[in-house]
Amino acid sequence: MEVVIIGLGEVGKHVARVLSHESHNVTVIDMNPELVTAISERLDVRSIVGRGGSINTLQEAEIDHADLVIAVTNVDEANILTALIAKNQGAKKVIARVDSSDYLPGTRGFYQGLYGIDLVISPEILSAVEINKLAKYLGANFIEEFADDKVTLMQLTQKAKEGVTDIPLAELEIPPDLLVAAIIRDNKLIIPSGDTRLKEGDKISIIGKTEAIKSGAEFFSTHRSIAAEKVVLLGGGEIGFTVAKLLEDQNISVVLIEWKKSRCQTLAENLKEAVIINGDGTDIEVLKQEKVWEADVFVTASKRDEVNLMSGLLAKELGSKKTIAIVHRPDYLPVYEHLGLDATISPRRYAANKILKYVRTGEVVSVTDIELGKGEILEFSVPGGSKVVGKKLKSLKIPRGTIIGAVAGRRGAIIPTGNDIVEAGDTVIVFTTPKVRPKVENLFKTV
């Protein structure tokens, strides 16, 4: 596939890295010569220094022959213009990053066909939607959907609970259509068996039908209510504003702290019920005044990583039940998690993964990291002629340390047993490790 990527921020770099490693022909464009030089030295890509909205630059990149053009600079108008020019010049598919809600209808975060662009994607709104999901399930560290949202994965940190911990999984009365697919214990990945017992502090990944995931959250959680009733937000930018709107629509009480007075006025005019506080979220007296320990969730969503980290740690110290932090630089993620924040969200990484999921062709639809690469969740679209088609799962040579978590197809979504058969066109969700991933991928290739 011939791919042109305009903009070498975190989104552009990540997409370029993945697609070049998957042997696509990638051309990158950015106005910053240093960024272009740096990526050229690390990746097998063609590089151009120039403005993405320039017709001359785009012609140099041969967009008329491009299968895909991805405009992901930090300027919305430039991305929209670039995508429209590329489409007009003959690019088969175009994708544009757009952050501002002023250009977007609703709060979905991604839109197909908007302005004549194949995919418009908003990292900020996608992050707000993710925060909203985590507020609905207090015990969840992250939530991921697969197979066109028919299958959902939820990771949570297990607390001691009678009837759940220290009992073999085979003996647990886990709700129907759910499976404990992976456990992180002492920084190691465990693919569990029926004899495995959950321990306090385990990070467990449960997968199942999307409509069943609420039952799973209730079964494993120790929270009085699985959903938040009160949320305190730091940062009234696009993310914080969208989160507040989403929470208001669910009748969840919202307190929003924003340091700019002019922005506070705008927020007050556009939010119905949220309490707007003009203050510094890194000031412990402000957090005490708002009694963050009484909130179910404290969210740090400012534009500055250091502010998000500091306010999150202060809220945690004051007794906040759950902290969610926006992390703008993905390389900071391990630091946040090491310091004990409950959940972290990288807007740029979410957007990049959404783009990759949209553009991928072939067997592998998506790849999701578990615990910073300790494990992987692979989403396969099973092609006709694959080695697995028509065979019972128990007859397949599934690598050790791998589990098939779910299968979705014309029969709906199922948690498979060894007697289930995979059909061509099914989506299969597999838990594995980077070490054995090549063997798993080989399993699903055509004969």
Calculate the terminal CA-CA distance, rounded to whole Å: 23 Å
CATH architecture of the largest domain, by name, is 3-Layer(aba) Sandwich
Point out poorly predicted stretches: none
Q: Which structural class fits the helix and strand makeup? A: alpha/beta
Q: What is the percentage of strand-forming residues?
A: 25-35%
- CATH level-3 fold name of the largest domain: Rossmann fold
Count of helices?
13
The CATH class designation of the largest domain is Alpha Beta
Mean pLDDT: 91
| Total separate domains | 4
Strand count, sense and closure of the main sheet? 7 strands, mixed
- Rg measurement, Å: 23 Å
Overall spatial form = globular
> What helical percentage do the residues reach?
25-40%
Strands of the widest sheet, in order across it, are 3-2-1-4-5-7-6
CATH homologous superfamily grouping of the largest domain: NAD(P)-binding Rossmann-like Domain
| Count of strand segments | 23
Quick rundown:
The chain is α/β, with parallel strands linked by helices. It has 13 helices and 23 strands. The protein is 30% helix and 26% strand.
Describe the structure.
The protein is of the alpha/beta class. The protein has four domains: 2-121, Rossmann fold, CATH 3.40.50; 148-220, Regulator of K+ conductance, C-terminal domain (Alpha-Beta Plaits), CATH 3.30.70.1450; 230-350, Rossmann fold, CATH 3.40.50; 359-444, Regulator of K+ conductance, C-terminal domain (Alpha-Beta Plaits). It has helices at 10-21, 33-42, 55-60, 76-89, 123-136, 213-220, 238-249, 261-270, 284-289, 305-317, 333-338, 347-359, 437-444, and strands at residues 2-6, 25-30, 46-49, 68-71, 93-97, 110-112, 119-121, 140-146, 151-157, 178-185, 188-190, 203-209, 230-234, 253-258, 275-278, 297-300, 323-326, 343-345, 364-370, 375-381, 403-409, 412-414, 427-432. The strands form four sheets. It has a seven-stranded mixed sheet, sandwiched between helices. Helix 10 links the parallel strand 16 and strand 17 (323-326). The longest helix is centred in the N-terminal third of the chain and has 14 residues, at 76-89. It is globular. The two termini are 23 Å apart. The relative contact order is 0.11.
